[in-house]
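input
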Amino acid sequence: MAYVRLRTLVNRFEADLLTRALDQAGVNYFLRTYEDTAYDGLFTAREGWGAIWVAEDDQKWASGIIAQFEQAYGAALESE
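output
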């Protein structure tokens, strides 16, 4: 099964909200974080905190969930 990158994540809070929504919808995904204490955040500065990857079959459905998330929480995350 092929996976595609759905979204780059800013922080753990955003990851928790999105993964909970994807879990409830039954979307097939995995979360990849770029935290690495050995390099003191080198990769998080360049790559973001992490990324959500979804199965190609679920991409359209997951994109709709992300759009709803953006409407509800987008302004709050930008003001941080």
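quick obs: The chain has one domain: 3-78.
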